[in-house]
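call fold target=SEC-C domain-containing protein
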Amino acid sequence: MRPDTPAEIVDHATEAARLERTAGLYPEDAETLLLRAAAHLELSGDRPAATTLYDRLLSSSAGLANPALVRALKASNLWEYGHEAEARAIIEGIRTTAPRDPAPWVIAAEALESHDELEAAAETFTEGARLLIPGPAEAPLASTHPLLFGRHRVRRMLGLPHDDWDTLADTVHTGPVTLDELHDPKRVWSLGSDEPAELEAEISRLRAELGAYRAALSRPFPVAVLHWPAPELEELLTAYPTLSTEYPSHPEHLATIESSLRELASSGTPNLGIVTGTVPSYEAFAASEATSPTDPTLLPQYATTLAARGRAVAWPPGEGEGCWCGVGRPYRECHGAN
């Protein structure tokens, strides 16, 4: 399904089946594809089938990139069709294992919130924030913003006073309507008002909130540049030496990636990203396209396909994040130095 496909015309069951078939063709991407399939099954109303997919992932012999995320999604889904005790146990397990990724914390806390467990939701948001954000005086990574916003929302509903973490949430929020207004538990009352001014104000707030949700949920396909780690590039050129015209050396390859992305950024191209290739994956893609791996025109197609399968990493890396080249240094001290 393309990201611009209207939701009302999506056959969720059919889309889930298509994603399952695609996962069979690309086992290295099975986790991402099956999670999307499970989401479609949830939207179709077939929650038991979604749980089956989550269990399939969790029982897989292949290691998962984010098992805590799969467990959190499973817990949220289970609670929606009557398996509250199991869902609570899974959420408690997530809190105990303390994953270093914000997504499981957010999903677990939102599951508690949606079932009116506001105190437990606030505690879960807070635990995640304290674990993943250096402190309320530090600039947090964008990936942790949902923790701060969710915490702010739940505390607002509980009527708790602002603390330093809420202030940090206000600081990183960029919408035209303040978080206090967006998260005001009483604002929905104005929808029953006969006053046009109150209704217009509420419509404005709802539009701003919808825009924020759309921005958070949007996953546009980035313009992706293909990156080969040194061992993979050596293997690629050993197998297909004619591609050495595309990749004279690994340092030059890395420099070309950075310069290409900077040129695209300066021209105003949005959603830039980097995808990392592997020789087996590239050979499988070439076979699926009935094309020789030696064809250099296949390389950008391969990059686009990896991006469409959710393999792209956004460029440039955020403040304090490691360089995309994988050497372990911060981006600003590596390829982002100049």
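return ok
The beta strands are 223-227, 272-276, 313-314. The longest strand covers residues 223-227.
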